[in-house]
Specification:
The protein is an alpha+beta fold. 23% of the residues lie in helices and 25% in strands. A hairpin with a 5-residue loop joins β3 and β4.
């Protein structure tokens, strides 16, 4: 592209298949939603949307239920969109009805690293562009 420097072409989101045990959740899951999703993935034999993970510590930003469903199904690997969490492209807010009103990115990482999990559906990460589905067969994650 004429006139575009290498800095402007830097990739912000990378799709990777990671070992599932390197990921660190920062919030708990809801039992009923987890059971429903686990059954859906088992039935369909596919994970439709990768989880969203911050690059440095592998803290899960979005997809705690998908992560836990795959873990319970015995998967060793998980597809993940890996991002630079410091990027201004990623906004952080809380869900309506969340127990905490405000959370910082540093708190999300700290909770993930320490294993001190927030209640389910506390944090809500918003990206400027919607990430596409990228289906992966369940048997390829075993």
């Amino acid at each position: 592209m004429p006139g575009v420097g290498a800095e402007e072409l830097r990739v912000r989101v990378v799709l990777e298949v990671l070992e599932i045990d390197v990921l660190r959740p920062h919030e708990r899951t809801r039992d009923e939603l987890l059971a429903q999703l686990t059954e859906e993935i088992r039935r369909d034999g596919v994970l439709k949307l990768p989880v969203l993970v911050e690059r440095e510590h592998h803290v899960i930003l979005d997809g705690h239920h998908r992560y836990e469903a795959l873990r319970r199904l015995g998967c060793r690997r998980i597809p993940a969109y890996v991002v630079d969490y410091a990027s201004e492209e990623i906004a952080l807010t809380t869900w309506p009805g969340a127990i905490v009103a405000r959370v910082t990115k540093a708190e999300v990482v700290a909770h993930g690293v320490k294993g001190d999990l927030f209640p389910p559906k506390t944090t809500r990460h918003l990206l400027k562009e919607k990430l596409p589905e990228s289906p992966v067969r369940l048997k390829d994650l075993m």
